[in-house]
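Dear U.,

Please find below the material for section 3 of the report. The protein was modelled together with fe (ii) ion; I have listed the sequence and SMILES used, followed by the predicted complex structure.
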Amino acid sequence: MPTAPDAASAPSGLYVPGYVRDHDTHPPLDHPGYRSTALRHPRRPPTLLPHTLTEITAPVLGEDRVGEHDHDLTRGHDGEPQGQRIIVHGQVRDSGGAAVPHTLVEVWQANAAGRYRHTGDNWPAPLDPHFTGVGRAMTDAEGRYRFVTVRPGAYPWRNHRNAWRPAHIHFSLFGRAFTQRLVTQMYFPDDPLFFQDPMWNSVPDPRARERMLARYDHDATRPEWALAYRWDIVLRGREQTPFESDEEILEDDE
Amino acid sequence: MSTHPTTPAQTVGPYLHIGLPWPDGPYAVAEGAPGAVWIRGTVYDGAGEPVTDALVETWQADPQGRFDHPDDPRGARSHPGFRAFGRCPTGADGGYGILTLKPGTVPGPHGDQAPHIDVSLFARGMLHRVVTRLYFPEEEAANAADPVLNSIGDPDARATLVAGAAPDGYRFDIRIQGDGETVFFDV
Ligand SMILES: [Fe+2]
């Protein structure tokens, strides 16, 4: 944990509170079950980087990065994509519970048949002329985001014999600090493919895995139009300053 | 304070190109802007092969060492025409390029830090991003006094964070594993 230097030892210093470190949450970079990690993980242990101004800041991206219909993956083509129409929504918060407002959320996914519109994806499932599979949204003042899309299909890959990825949507978030940057995947409840998926199982703590799981949200469905899933995302929060910690203890005693 | 556990990271996978690259991603500053420099490099895996499905992102201070961000206690200050953030996928040769301005000195908790750029690397086969820092070769005195560089004992390892000079900017290769492995940070 960073500590504030006393003024005498650092006359020109500028101390800023950092962000909590959340190693327990994340998968290891070396995960033999996911074969491609073998040549793509550093061998040297990482060097601790204190959080300075560069790490507690991030690009403040404006609404101009997002078009009016970018949150709706079913639009922008001559017709509607095949598949089950769904609403995916949720709130982005930090680990202190504060909403993360006005931050960019980017998503990409396979179509309903499990095929990506990508030159590298050649498995024999159909492309959908009405689906590209990319979306963008800014969170609102309460950190909420909302996408309209179709439920992605599962797809095979060559990691192990008869390997299939559970249905998922790729998510990318900026947060308000370099330390908060997160790229992850959202999964659907009751997927039968988790048992053999090294990505899902790379997260060591089973409770942390569950945090990648959306829940069916009947209240957010639109009758005769779309089913809905809710997925809340938690980014790292700010370290408490010693002063604030003291306050917390007092509050807890009340 | 309630503490909410964070959401785990997952790999960008092989199809990151659908969702992440921006047409203007490599341009933290417009081409032809005064002081614009290219940072170019290649990402290599543990077999020394170029990594063709990676994404490099950069974040940095402006030439005066300032950030356009409300959490900078000195105040947010924008540098017109400068985004301070760059994003570029690697190509078929494993190469990336970001056009930016050289950052100024940034204060740290124990005095000034040498000019630096924070770099995130995402790729298929990486379950989480890795983070490194780019320092500038002409800043010998500032680099020698930089607390982060000095926290790395091995001079060969430290040298992986110092870019090379190039005719129109700098060269910064990233070696994920093995010989000349780049220093990565626990951020
Ligand atoms: Fe995927």
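For the text of the report, you could mention the following: The pocket of fe (ii) ion is lined by residues A 165, 168, 170; B 13, 15 (CB under 6 Å).

Regards,
Y.
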